[in-house]
Amino acid sequence: MGRYRVGLETRERILSATRRLLGEVGVEDVTLKAITDQAAVGAGSFYNLFGSKEEVVLEVIREALDAVDPDPAGAGTDPLEDLVEAFVQFVTDSTPIARIYLQLAVGRGLTDPLVGQRLLRSHRRRVERFADALRRARPDLDARDAAAEAEMLLAALTGLGLTALLDPDFDMHAHAMRLLPAGEASVPGT
Amino acid sequence: MGRYRVGLETRERILSATRRLLGEVGVEDVTLKAITDQAAVGAGSFYNLFGSKEEVVLEVIREALDAVDPDPAGAGTDPLEDLVEAFVQFVTDSTPIARIYLQLAVGRGLTDPLVGQRLLRSHRRRVERFADALRRARPDLDARDAAAEAEMLLAALTGLGLTALLDPDFDMHAHAMRLLPAGEASVPGT
DNA sequence: TCCAAACTGGAGTGATCATTCCAGAATGCG
DNA sequence: CGCATTCTGGAATGATCACTCCAGTTTGGA
């Protein structure tokens, strides 16, 4: 199954075209013809490199899912502020991928049980990371309260992200900053 | 265009079937056959009553959009608590319609500029209502702060709603109550 | 009771897609 | 070079849909 150089280049062109189209047209409405036209490639070439349309779409979607949480291995060192900042950057800088992510979360996650469960799992993992960061910042915090507050933080970020994607003028950064405790530098706990 | 009684009944059966299917299968994947099968009706009967598949789908979607904000005329009398409670009820009680609403908001709103703008307008109206309620509860609040806080509140509610729709065990009510100023918690009947 | 209008199911139509097939061109290892 | 392997476009295929057509049935006002 050794590939020639031109083949790998074509592969990249197809992935790139799919990435763009998913953000523009949406996961549901993307056609093979649109992809192959955008990539300037015949259908035959496409199927020489990919097994199906779904395969490319899933590949790009996997990118999108991974991009929300760039460092899933990073055990528990990031301060809360960085976690929030990372999410804001994900939405504002990777707009097309963020669009795909949200489309997937809602369009597919709400109707396809498998996608829904996968999303839920990754959501819970993120809640834990936020809760850990919260307790590191405020050691006086009860574990249960930290979890609830983390859930709320993520919910707010998701909601703000949605608004930001709908409204290009929305200043997500400013709003997200309000979620952080004022004057984070020194908050003495008991 | 006078309709017979049986015709009106069939119409209702079709609308009801569409409502159910949109929540289950999703706006994009619903087929005419699924609708007519679910409603136990032939294609001919369907087109005797509706002009197109889109017409029924839009009818149901309009329901969903109206249901988020049950009293758009209600100038400014509802206390904050009621506004939050109404949203929680929308998600937990009208689950299928809430699903449709979110699917529409994200799936279509993110790709179709017209839908996106309509959603944004209704969002801004709701932010205003929340901000008004906030200033009524805490008159010391700056108008700018009230708006920002209202934006946050709605974002958090949307995010929590999304989680609730993905996770049947999620206690949205409990989480939403944390959004209200402490001490204000109303307990309907636990 | 009469009958025009409304209702009915389902076979048929045409459009849109993803996917397959294939013959010829390009690639790069020996 | 030689040549097996990979790449290429695009016509052909078959599946899936929304929608049309129509012959027969039901409805309900006069």
Word description of this protein:
Chain A has 190 residues and is mainly α. Chain A folds into 2 domains: 5-60, Orthogonal Bundle (Arc Repressor Mutant, subunit A); 69-177. In chain A, 71% of the residues lie in helices and 0% in strands. The first copy, chain A, has helices at 5-25, 32-39, 43-49, 53-68, 80-93, 95-108, 113-137, 143-166, 172-177. In chain A, helix 4 crosses helix 6 (95-108) and helix 5 (80-93) packs across helix 6. Chain A starts with a helix and ends in a 13-residue tail after the last helix. Chain A binds chain B through residues 24-26, 28-29, 99, 102-103, 105-111, 116, 119-120, 123, 148-149, 151-152, 154-160, 162-163, 165-167, 175, 178-179, and chain B through 24-26, 28-29, 99, 102-103, 105-111, 116, 119-120, 123, 148-149, 151-152, 154-160, 162-163, 165-167, 175, 178-179.
How big is the Rg of chain A? Answer: 20 Å
Secondary structure category of chain A: mainly alpha
Portion of residues in beta strands of chain A equals under 5%
> Would you report the number of β strands of chain A?
0
Number of contiguous helices of chain A: 9
What is the total number of structural domains of chain A?
2
